[in-house]
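Re: that backbone. C-alpha cells:
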C-alpha cells in the first residue's frame, strides 16, 4: 500500500512540477536554487507541523522525517526567514482598493459603474477610497501602483478611471510572479484539505473539462468563462465585504479566518488523433 501511495504521489508531483520548472527555467532559476527552496520548506513543515504531542520538535526527528542530515537541518533552521511581505502587502492593499471601487456605491456612477474619481476630497474621491480600503498607506503609493500595472489611468481632466474590475498586473512577469506563491498555494492547500477531510467537510473543488474541442469552440469559451467567473466573484465579493472586520470593525464573531474562492481557466493543445 505504501509503495502504491508513493508511486501515485510521485506521478502527481511530476505533473504538478512541470509548469513550476517551466517558470523557473524561463526566469533563470536553476535546479540547485529550486532544491534549496524545497529543502527549506520540508524542514519548516516538519518542524512546525509534525512534532510529537507534548514534546519539543528536535533536529534529529526533523532529520528522520525529511531525509536530510542533522547538519543540513541545523543549517537551514538558522537561515533568516524569507521576506516577500512587501510584495504581498502591496498586492493585497491594491486589490482591496480596486474591489471597493467596483462595488462601493460611494465610488460609482448612478448606473453602478465605477466612477471617474477626483484625486482628493472627503467623499467620493480616490483619497477617500484608499483611506477606507487600504488603511494608512499613502494615497500616492496606491495610485502609482494601480497606474504602473495598468489597472487605472489618469484622464486629461485630472480624474482617475478604473480600467479593469480586478487587480491583475499586466506590465510584466515580475509583477505576476507573486501570484505563483499565493494563488497556487491556496489551490494546493484546498487539495491537501480534501485529501484528509470527510466528504461533508470538504472544500469546493470542481472543474469541467473536455479533451476534444475544436479551436473555434475554445475561442468562444474564453470570453464566456471570463464573464461568468467575474460575475460570480463580484457576487461573492459583495457578500463577503460586510463581514470584513478591517473595514467594518463592529462585526461580531470569534476567531480570525482567511477564506475566499478562486476561479481559473486552463487550456492545453493536444495532438490530433486521426
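Recovered sequence:
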Amino acid at each position: 500500500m505504501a509503495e502504491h501511495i508513493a508511486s501515485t504521489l510521485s506521478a502527481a508531483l511530476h505533473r504538478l512540477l512541470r509548469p513550476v520548472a517551466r517558470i523557473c527555467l524561463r526566469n533563470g532559476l536553476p535546479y540547485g536554487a529550486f532544491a534549496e527552496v524545497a529543502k527549506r520548506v520540508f524542514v519548516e513543515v516538519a518542524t512546525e507541523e509534525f512534532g510529537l504531542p507534548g514534546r519539543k520538535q528536535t533536529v534529529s526527528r526533523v532529520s528522520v522525517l525529511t531525509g536530510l542530515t542533522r547538519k543540513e537541518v541545523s543549517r537551514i533552521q538558522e537561515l533568516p526567514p524569507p521576506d516577500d511581505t512587501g510584495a504581498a502587502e502591496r498586492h493585497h492593499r491594491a486589490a482591496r482598493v480596486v474591489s471597493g471601487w467596483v462595488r462601493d456605491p460611494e465610488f460609482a456612477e448612478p448606473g453602478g459603474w465605477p466612477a471617474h474619481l477626483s484625486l482628493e476630497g472627503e467623499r467620493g474621491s480616490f483619497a477617500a477610497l484608499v483611506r477606507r480600503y487600504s488603511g494608512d498607506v499613502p494615497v500616492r503609493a496606491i495610485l502609482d501602483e494601480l497606474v504602473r500595472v495598468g489597472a487605472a489611468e489618469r484622464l486629461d481632466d485630472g480624474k482617475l478611471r478604473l480600467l479593469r474590475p480586478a487587480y491583475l498586473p499586466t506590465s510584466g512577469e515580475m509583477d505576476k510572479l507573486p501570484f505563483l506563491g499565493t494563488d497556487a498555494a491556496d489551490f494546493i492547500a484546498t487539495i491537501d484539505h480534501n485529501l484528509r477531510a470527510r466528504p461533508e467537510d470538504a472544500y469546493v473543488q470542481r472543474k469541467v473539462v473536455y479533451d476534444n474541442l475544436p479551436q473555434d469552440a475554445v475561442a468562444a469559451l474564453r470570453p464566456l468563462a471570463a464573464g461568468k467567473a467575474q460575475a460570480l466573484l463580484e457576487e461573492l465579493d459583495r457578500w463577503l465585504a460586510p463581514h470584513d472586520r478591517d473595514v467594518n470593525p463592529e462585526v461580531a464573531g470569534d476567531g480570525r479566518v482567511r477564506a475566499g474562492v478562486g476561479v481559473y481557466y486552463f487550456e492545453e493543445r493536444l495532438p490530433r488523433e486521426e
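The radius of gyration is 23 Å. The mean pLDDT is 90.
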